[in-house]
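ARCHIVE CARD
Drawer: 12
Card no.: 0347
Subject: one protein chain, sequence and derived structure
Cross-reference: see card 0346
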Amino acid sequence: MKVPSTPPKKMSLKDALRFLLKSHYLGEDFPPLITTEKFAGFCVKNFDSLVPDKTLLERTTLYGLFSAPRTTNSRRVMALPHPSSQLALSLIIAENRGEVRKTIRTSKITLYNVSPEKSAERVFVGLDFEQRTKKEAEILARYPIIMKADVQNFFHTIYTHSLPWAVLGKNYVKDTREGRDKVEKNKLEQHWASQIDRAIQRGNSRETFGIPVGPDISRIIAEILLSGIHKNSSFAKCLDGHKAYRLVDDFFVGFDDEITARRCQDSLRQALWEYNLYLNDIKTQIIHSSVIFDGGWKYEIERFQLSYKSSDRQRDAVQRLLEITLAHCEAQRDSRPVIFFCRRLLTLNIVPANFLFIRNCMLRVGRDFTICLRFVADFVVMYRADLLDAESFEAFKGWTQLLFAMHAKRGHDFEVTWTLIICGVLGLRVSKAFLSVDEPIESPVVLAILGLLSKKGLLDEKWDDWKINPPPTGSLANGRSWLPYYEAVLRDWTNDPQIKKEIRADALFSKLLDEKVTFLDDSNFSEYIPRLPITTVSAHLKSNTKDRLITRTKTFSGRKISEHYT
C-alpha cells in the first residue's frame, strides 16, 4: 500500500517576509558580499514590534544605483533599495501573497512560477528557464510563423498608478478616484495593489514612473502589471488557441500565417498603450521559425574536451576553446559564450604545470569581457594559496591597476567593485593614485567595499577621504548612500559627526545598530600581508587532485549566476 506523502506546510507570514527580504531583495549583478540575510533575520525576530505598513509608507527614500554591463555592448543601472522601503513593500506582498499569486496566474503564458519554494527560501520560485526551452520547442514544432515582441524600457517606464488598473480594471480605478463615493475611494486606497503603488513611489522619492531594476521583487510587480495586458479582450482573443510564452516583457507566440501574427502584434501594441507602455520596434518582429536558432555555441563550449592528464594536450585544448569562444562572441556580438568558457575553467581539474596559463586566460577574459570579473574573483578565492608568490602579485597588481584606469572615472560600478574585491581577497593595497581617481566616490557599493578594505589595512587613505560629502539638504539616512553611511557608523569607518548623528537618530537604523545588523560579508577578504619570495609555483600547486577539488567548492559567488546569461 502506497503511503500518502505529507503535504508541505503552508508558508507562514514570517517566513514569507524573511524570504522576500533575503532572496528577492538584491539584483543578481550585485556581488554576494552584499547580503540582506541578517536584515531579514532581524525583521522576523522583531516582527511583532515592526512599525505598521502605514507608518513605513509615510517614509520617502531613494535607492542606491549600481551600473553593470550587459552581455551585449551596453549597460544597465541596477537598484539597491533602501531597507525601510523594501521592508514596506515586502510586508504588503507577504500579507497578500495569495492574491498576488492568483493575479499573476491569470496570465496563462507567463514563465514566472508563483509556487512557493521553502527549500530555496523563496516565496515564489521565479522565472522558469527550463520551461522556456520546452515551450519554445513546442511552439517551433507547431507553427511556421513566430511573433517575438519586447516592451521598450519596460521597468523604467512602468507607471506605478497602473498597478491597480491591472488588478481592478482601469475604468473602475479612474471612475472611483474621480467620483464622490468616499467609501469606495477608501476601499480602493486600502487595496493591496494601491498599497504597492504607494510603496514603490515612496522608495523612489515619490516618482510615479519606473520601478527598481534588478530585485526579483520588481519582477513580481512587473508580473502583476502584465496580468492586466493579458486581460485585454482583443489581445486575449488573438492568443486563444495559440501556444505562447512570456518571459517578463518578452513575448514569443506561434501562428500559422503572417496576417494573423500581425493582427496579434497590433492588439498587443494597443493593449500596452492602455498602460503607457510601448513595443520596442527594433526587437519586435514577425519571422519564420526556420531562422530561429542559437548557432550551437553553447553545446560546443560545454562539450569541448579539456580533461587531459598531459599538460601539453590540456593547454592546447584550453587555447583552442578560448579561440573558438572569442570567435563566437564576435559573431554573436554578445559576451555570453565567454561566460560559459569561464565556467568551464572554474570546474577544470588543472594539470599543475598549466596553472599559470589558466590564470592568464582568466585575466585576459576578465579584462576584455568585464562581465566575467565575478568568475575571476571565484578563481582567486579558489586558488588564493597558489597566488601568494611575487610573480602573481605583480601580475594582479598591473592587471587591477589597468582595470581601474579603464573604468573608475566612467562610473562603471560593477567593474570597480569586483576589482576591489579581488584586491581584498589577495591583500593588495589600494590608494587614490592606484585607482586613478581624484574626486570623491559616488557609488554606494564602491564606497562600502572601500570601507571593508580600510578595516583590513588595505586602504592607504582614511575612508572619510574617499566618501562623497553628505548632501547639504535632505535626509542623509534616506538617500542613495544609505549603505556605506550606515556601515561606516556600524563598523567605525568614519569620524564625520553628521553621518554618525543622522544614522544613529534614524528609527530603523538605530535598531539595526543596536543588534549589529550588517549588510556586508567580508569573510573572504585578507589582511595586508607581505609578499612571498618569487618561486616557480607555490607549493600548494603540487597538491593532489582530491585537495584541488575540495578547494574548488569554496567559491566567492554565493548568489546564483543570473539565469538570463544561460
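Annotation on reverse: The first strand starts at residue 64 and ends at 69. The first helix runs from residue 13 to 23.
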